[in-house]
Amino acid sequence: MNKTGEMSEVFMNVIRSRCSTRAFTSETVREEDLEQIIEAGRTAPIAGADYTMSHMTVLGDPEVLTRIREGCMMKRKDGTLVDPLYGAQTIIFLSATGPSEDCIEYCNVACAIENMSLAATSLGLGSVYLWGFLKKLRKDPALLELLRIPEGYTILSAFAVGYAKDPIEPHEPKGRIGVTYL
Ligand SMILES: Cc1cc2nc3c(=O)[nH]c(=O)nc-3n(C[C@H](O)[C@H](O)[C@H](O)COP(=O)(O)O)c2cc1C
Description:
Layout: H1 9-17, H2 31-42, E1 54-59, H3 62-71, E2 74-75, E3 81-82, E4 90-96, H4 104-122, E5 126-130, H5 134-138, H6 141-146, E6 154-162
Antiparallel strand pairs: 1-4, 2-3, 4-6, 5-6
Helix pairs in contact: 1-4, 2-4
C-alpha cells in the first residue's frame, strides 16, 4: 500500500468515474468481472463482523429478470413507463435479517453496494443502487418467491450492474455533502 499520504491516481480515477448508470446495454457481464464485483461486496465492512446478517442474491436468469422488469414498471410524471432495472442483465439483491430497531442492516448492505459499485467502476462497468422499485416488489409475493430469498431475510436494497451505454469516465460530481470542521 502507498504510505506517502497521497491517494493513488488510479483510486481517485475510480472515485471520480463512479456514477449511477440508468441505461445498460443488453450484454451480460463477463463471469470473471462479476465474480470480482461480488467478492468486493461480500468482503465489505459489516457491523460487528456478523456476516450472517446479510445475504446477496445474484439474478442473471433472463426469464426471472423479465418477470421482475414487467411486474415492477415505474411511471414517469408524464405517465410513460420506465424499466426499473434500466435494461441491466444482472441485478444483485441485498437482504438481511431484521431489520432491527436501529436499522443497522441498511448500513451493512449499503457498504456492500458501494464496494461493488467501486469495483464495477474500476472494471469499466456501469452500476446503480436500486431502491425505488423495491416497494412494488415487496408487495408482490409471486415475484418475491422467484428470488428465493433465504428464510428470515428481507430485501433491503438492490444493485444493477452491466455495460453502460454512456462512457464511464472521470466527471464533476452532482453535488457534495456539506462539511463542518471543528
Ligand atoms: C440509498 C440509495 C438509493 C438509491 N436509489 C436509487 C433508485 O432507486 N433508482 C435510481 O435510479 N438511483 C438510485 N440511487 C442513485 C442516486 O440517485 C445517485 O447516487 C445520486 O443521484 C448521485 O448520482 P451519481 O450516483 O451519478 O453520482 C440511489 C442511491 C442511494 C445511495
